[in-house]
Every structure is written in C-alpha cells, then in structure tokens.
Design a protein that fits this description.
Layout: H1 2-19, H2 22-29, H3 44-48, E1 62-64, H4 73-86, E2 89-93, H5 99-114, H6 117-121, E3 132-135, E4 150-155, H7 173-197, H8 204-208, E5 214-221, E6 231-236, E7 242-247, E8 253-257, E9 260-263, E10 271-275, H9 277-282, E11 292-295, E12 302-309, E13 318-319, E14 337-338, H10 339-348
Parallel strand pairs: 1-2
Antiparallel strand pairs: 2-10, 3-4, 4-5, 5-12, 6-11, 7-10, 7-12, 8-9, 8-11, 13-14
Helix pairs in contact: 4-7, 5-7
The structure holds N-oxalylglycine and nickel (II) ion.
C-alpha cells in the first residue's frame, strides 16, 4: 500500500512539475474545483499535532527607525537586540524606503506570476546553478506535502556578480533593481545595529558576510479551496544572517512563540526582519532563529518578497561563534565550519528540522 502511495505521489509530482505553470496554472485550469490535489495534502498526523494559534492581541515587536542616526540610536539598538533574542522577529517602520518602492515590488511580483504562461515557463527550472528560477517549492520532491505557493527566485550566493540585470524577467526588472538597491542598504543598517547591540564594532557583522551575497524570492500564494489541508509555506527557519520580508495586505505569516503560532498582521509600509540560523550560530545563541510558516487561505493571491542576506555558498571564510562574544561564562556552543558544509547540510535535511543541532559541539 505505501509503495503504491509513493508511486502515485511521484507521478503526480512529475506531471505537475512538467506543466511548468505552478499552483496558479493548476487553478486556472480547474476553476470549479473545490478539492486540492493529494500532493498538497499534509499528513493527518502533522495536522493533528499542530500548535495552537494565539489571539490577535499578541504581536511581534515594532521598531521605529526614525532618527536612527541621531539621538535615538542607543534606544533602537536596545529594542532590536531584545526583539532578536526573544522573538527572533520584528517589524521596522520609518525605515526610509518609499512606500512606492514597496508597492511596486508587490505589484511587480503579481505581474510576473500573472503574465502569459509561455513567457513564465521560460524561467521554470530546478537547476540550483541558475541565478534566476521560477518554480513551485524548491523541495517539491523531498517534502511530505507540497506547499500551495509559486516562487520566482534570484540568487547571487553561488557566485558573486553572476546575476546580470538582463537575466531578470523584463516585466519586473526595474522594480526588482530598485527594491534591491533600497533593501540591501537597509539590511546593512540592521546588521550595524545588531553588531552594536552585541557589543561588536558597527561593521563586524557586515564584514563577516560576503557582501552582496543574497537570495531573493518573490512568492505568490493563490487562493486555496481547502486551506485547512495544506500550507502556503511549511514551518521552517531561514539559513540567512537576516531576512527582510515584505508582505501584502492579505496576511498569513505566523511566527512560533512559546509554542503558539502568532499572526504577523500586515502593516502598510512596514518590513519584517528575522534572524536566520547563521546569525544564531555566530552570536552563540544570543540572537534566535525562530520557526515560522505561512498558512493557506481561501482569499488570495497573497504576495510576499523575502531577501535573505547570507554568505557565499563557497565562502573562503570559516564561520563559528564570534570570538569577541565568548568568555569563561559564555563557552562556544557550536563548532567552526565552512559555508559549503553549512548549506550542504541545510538543503539536504527535511525543512521542518532544525539546521542548528548538526553544528553543535
Ligand atoms: C521565506 C518565508 C514568508 C512569507 O521565504 O523563507 O518565510 O510570508 N516567507 O512568504
Ligand atoms: Ni522563512
């Protein structure tokens, strides 16, 4: 029986993948459908042992970056360190990125996913060596249940400078370049504030990273006829130093806090920042990389855009707990490793398993 099931699943996945039109394509063709295909259905045991969702009066911290460069810096640093060491997540407002740039990025993502299938198909691939790819679930053939989501990904982390602007889909090229220009600067500011908060030199974390190594994903979550059976994005932590996330007005992102799912309510103009595994390790657990997920919903499409600031896949640097943070009372929890070891492990393990334990001493 189980062989039969896995055989069917393999075929279903392959047929779906070969259409190259994603979840959106599936929905376009089956407008009247009220059931989702089996490949998206989470195993009953997963659904039944889910954490509860907590009431909406609990929210992740909001940090106001206005006047960060004058008298407010010390206070902002304190708030950010506290949010990063408890929640691992916070929203920033008054970050200086014009509303128009954010709105255009959400609109640009929609335009990419809603353009003609034939144009979109040219970008469909699962080739990790490509700087630009569009597909459904990078782990489609590994996960127990597929996520109700399509994604356009851009990445420079395999080799710096590998992404030429003309490789970007023309429908959102300018939008992406402008958004990246702003968010990469904001990312450096956040790393500076976190460095100061940890008692390091302001450029310590930025210097540790291979600057300009990032992965950028533009997610499209179509409305789902049976949202309780699947997820938009399964529970996971990010492999990054930090992630900068923009979500539209629909909502659906949840952060795990005290064994409860906390909704991250959409806040116009805000960006969500979270700590990734790499920063938890090098801060020797002072900053927390926290599990999060996106629920599927009957409303949609929902659009979100994540920028992962990371190091190169094959960085010449070695990583481990930052020496300046260690002391007699604060012994290293993790061993030193190369980024190749780190990412190879990160991408081979099941997504819902911690990427951290493997690197513990
Ligand atoms: C991610 C992620 C959340 C979202 O891409 O790692 O957590 O809201 N995305 O799409
Ligand atoms: Ni994530």
């Amino acid at each position: 029986m189980s062989n039969q099931t896995s055989y069917d699943r393999a075929n279903e996945l392959k047929a779906f993948d070969e259409r190259k039109t994603g979840v959106k394509g599936l929905l376009d063709e089956t407008k009247e459908e009220t059931h989702i295909p089996n490949m998206f259905v989470r195993p009953v045991e997963d659904r039944s042992k889910d954490f509860p969702t907590c009431p909406d009066n609990i929210t992740i911290p909001v940090i106001d970056l206005a006047h960060v460069n004058d008298d407010n810096k010390a206070e902002i640093v304190k708030e950010m360190l506290s949010a990063s060491s408890t929640w691992g997540f916070f929203q920033v407002v008054n970050h200086g990125i014009p509303m128009e740039v954010l709105d255009n990025m959400i609109q640009g993502t929609r335009l990419f996913h809603e353009q003609d299938d034939e144009v979109k198909k040219q970008y469909y691939n699962r080739d990790n060596s490509k700087a630009v790819s569009y597909n459904t679930n990078y782990d489609l053939y590994k996960s127990k249940a597929a996520n109700w989501r399509d994604t356009l990904s851009l990445s420079t982390f395999l080799s710096l400078g590998s992404l030429e602007p003309q490789e970007l889909p023309s429908i959102c090229r300018e939008t992406i370049l402008e958004y990246l220009n702003h968010t990469l600067k904001l990312g450096d500011l956040i790393l500076e504030l976190l460095s100061i908060g940890l008692g390091l030199k302001p450029n310590h974390l930025s210097n540790l990273r291979d600057s300009q190594a990032w992965t950028f994903v533009c997610h499209y979550y179509p409305a789902c006829p049976e949202p309780e059976l699947t997820l938009g994005t399964s529970k996971h932590t990010d492999s990054s130093f930090i992630t900068l996330l923009l979500q539209d007005h629909i909502g659906g992102l949840q952060v795990l806090h005290d064994n409860q799912w906390v909704n991250v309510k959409p806040r116009p103009g805000a960006l969500i920042i979270n700590i990734g595994d790499m920063l938890q390790i090098i801060s020797n657990d002072m900053l927390k990389s926290v599990n999060h997920r996106v629920i599927a919903q009957t409303v949609g499409p929902r659009v979100s855009i994540a920028l992962f600031l990371r190091s190169l896949f094959k960085s010449p640097k070695k990583y481990g707990p930052i020496k300046e943070l260690l002391s007699e009372e604060n012994q290293p929890i993790y061993k030193d490793f190369t980024t190749e070891e780190f990412f190879t492990y990160f991408f081979s393990r099941p997504v819902d398993q911690s990427g951290l334990d493997y690197f513990k001493l």
